[in-house]
Amino acid sequence: MGFIPEEAKSLPPPAVANRNSVWLAGVGWCSAMLHNAINHRPPLKSGVHRQFLMATIGWFIGYHLTKYENYTYARLDRDMNEYIRLHPEEFAAKEKKTFAEIVEPFHPVR
């Protein structure tokens, strides 16, 4: 695919069955069934090859959409970690407090 840059090829590939692939395959299959229903054909039994084709196209688009999504999040993480590395004074470690120091003392009212 042309819309994913070369540096994204170093990332591991997403799983074949991911949420975008499954979702868009279902959308493709339902759109083929809707097309059958609009044309007054039996929605489930006619045009099975078209249903399979639309589901496959949806799966393909979902897979590459997930690849692009993973690249985008990896790029944002890289930029954020680089900013944190260059500006450590803005991300100083806070002192650790125990839970007892955070919670106010409990005084029951009777």
UniProtKB/TrEMBL annotation:
Subcellular localization: Mitochondrion inner membrane
Transmembrane segments: none
Coiled-coil regions, chain positions: none
Domain of life per record: Eukaryota
One Pfam family matching this protein: NDUF_C2
One biological process term in Gene Ontology: mitochondrial electron transport, NADH to ubiquinone
InterPro entries: NDUC2 (IPR009423)
GO cellular component: a single term: mitochondrial inner membrane
Membrane topology term: Single-pass membrane protein
Keywords attached to this entry: Electron transport, Membrane, Mitochondrion, Mitochondrion inner membrane, Respiratory chain, Transmembrane, Transmembrane helix, Transport
Similarity section: Belongs to the complex I NDUFC2 subunit family.
The protein's name: NADH dehydrogenase 1 subunit c2
Organism: Perca flavescens
